[in-house]
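Field log, afternoon session.

UNIT: design team B
ACTIVITY: writing a sequence onto a fixed backbone
BACKBONE:
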């Protein structure tokens, strides 16, 4: 053997022992070796974290075959304990395999065929038989396939069919696991610069737009994928107003914007409630997302991660590395939708009495008003009319919910924010006399409403 034939992957001293145990069908020995393999790989991963190396290492055919065939097939072994230990070992080896040039190796096409055809077939059976780890096996194989998933449709379709069947499963746990798989798929597209291709975007959004999120866990997983997608596509959002931005807003603040706050006045909308109406966690995350999209996201929005149960636990949210505020062009395109979303957000904030909901609401409306003041293409009066309609809907909701003091507080506070801003300023000699009357008619119905108690402060 020449010195260049070094081993790229850890655990090579265990290869022969495992193969011998396989030949003898000695499962106790197999299980013991698989545990050792996991330990060796995890230890090697910790050491490699200390040494950063961008260059891919070369890999021997025997090493590749050992992991993809000898260990890989054990992930579908009949004995559950061996199956899980093989999966644990394989998961710990993936980081090492991906640090090599395995996809450029002459034997890769042959091994890829086994993974994409034989293993996906076995995996589909595992999912249908409710193997609790089917999604972990799917994920580890997808990480190995990596860029090959993005080349053509044959390979990706084999993996997609398994997850798509998972979305249709009556078992909620399998549906939840399917969204974990979907999140990984989106990451694979992003890492391979495929995420902004229209057909990929359309594919990714299909399960995210499904009308029912049967559990809060599913809703949280959907939100996580939506937000990851928005962060990845931030530079292209102007061209994806209909495909990405608007569906996300509906997910957070829908189900409908037909008339302002219609969800609270029309019982038929209750059956269609968007996740942002149904689950406390999504209500809070939707508020953070809206603040980020309007920009800027101040520290107050981080308080929205606080869970209401006083347990000290917090919601998970991926704070973007770069500014997420939408462009002026996208704001112009979706201004009415965004204004309607702000009033929806105000109502949701009234339910968050474990937070300083007034401060968060001020952040939302100050951000919105700043965007309106910078708007150049939509007439200011059009936007003021939309705000007036929204505020009238909020007033009506307050009158219908007379004991909801938090909601009433936010009505007064939002009104004050608007009144104190430059939105209602009239420039003598520039604005028409009708502008003053419009502003008067916008504010006075609230100030003089006999059914509203006088604000405490």
């Amino acid at each position: 053997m020449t010195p260049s034939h070094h081993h790229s992957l850890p655990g090579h001293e265990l290869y022969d022992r495992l193969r011998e145990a396989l030949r003898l069908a000695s499962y106790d020995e197999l299980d013991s070796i698989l545990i050792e393999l996991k330990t060796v790989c995890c230890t090697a991963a910790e050491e490699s974290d200390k040494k950063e190396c961008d260059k891919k290492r070369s890999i021997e055919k025997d090493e590749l075959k050992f992991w993809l065939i000898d260990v890989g097939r054990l992930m579908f072994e009949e004995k559950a304990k061996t199956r899980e230990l093989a999966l644990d070992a394989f998961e710990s080896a993936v980081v090492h395999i991906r640090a090599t040039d395995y996809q450029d190796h002459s034997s890769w096409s042959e091994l890829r065929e086994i993974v994409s055809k034989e293993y996906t077939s076995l995996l589909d059976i595992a999912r249908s038989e409710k193997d609790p780890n089917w999604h972990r096996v799917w994920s580890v194989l997808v990480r190995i396939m990596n860029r090959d998933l993005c080349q053509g449709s044959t390979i990706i379709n084999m993996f997609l069919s398994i997850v798509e069947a998972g979305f249709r499963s009556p078992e909620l746990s399998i549906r939840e696991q399917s969204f974990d798989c979907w999140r990984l798929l989106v990451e694979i597209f992003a890492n391979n610069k495929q995420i902004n291709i229209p057909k990929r975007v359309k594919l990714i959004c299909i399960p995210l737009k499904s009308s029912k999120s049967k559990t809060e866990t599913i809703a949280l997983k959907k939100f996580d994928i939506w937000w990851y997608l928005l962060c990845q596509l931030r530079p292209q959002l102007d061209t994806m107003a209909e495909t990405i931005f608007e569906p996300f807003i509906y997910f957070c603040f829908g189900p409908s914007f037909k008339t302002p706050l219609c969800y609270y006045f029309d019982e038929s909308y209750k059956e269609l409630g968007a996740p942002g109406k149904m689950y406390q966690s999504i209500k809070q995350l939707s508020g953070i997302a809206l603040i980020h999209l309007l920009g800027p996201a101040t520290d107050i929005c981080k308080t929205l991660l606080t869970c209401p149960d006083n347990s000290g636990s917090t919601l998970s949210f991926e704070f973007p590395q770069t500014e997420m505020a939408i462009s002026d062009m996208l704001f112009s395109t979706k201004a009415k939708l965004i204004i309607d979303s702000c009033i929806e957000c105000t109502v949701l904030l009234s339910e968050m009495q474990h937070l300083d909901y007034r401060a968060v609401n001020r952040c939302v409306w100050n951000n919105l008003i700043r965007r309106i003041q910078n708007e150049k293409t939509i007439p200011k009066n059009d936007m003021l009319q939309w705000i007036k309609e929204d505020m009238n809907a909020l007033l009506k909701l307050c009158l219908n919910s007379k004991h909801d003091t938090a909601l009433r507080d936010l009505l007064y506070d939002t009104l004050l924010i608007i009144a104190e801003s430059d939105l209602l300023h009239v420039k003598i000699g520039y604005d028409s006399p009708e502008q003053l009357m419009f502003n008067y008619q916008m504010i006075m119905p609230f100030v003089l409403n006999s059914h509203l108690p006088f604000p405490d402060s």
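LOG NOTE: The mean pLDDT is 91.
NEXT ACTIVITY: expression trials, pending approval
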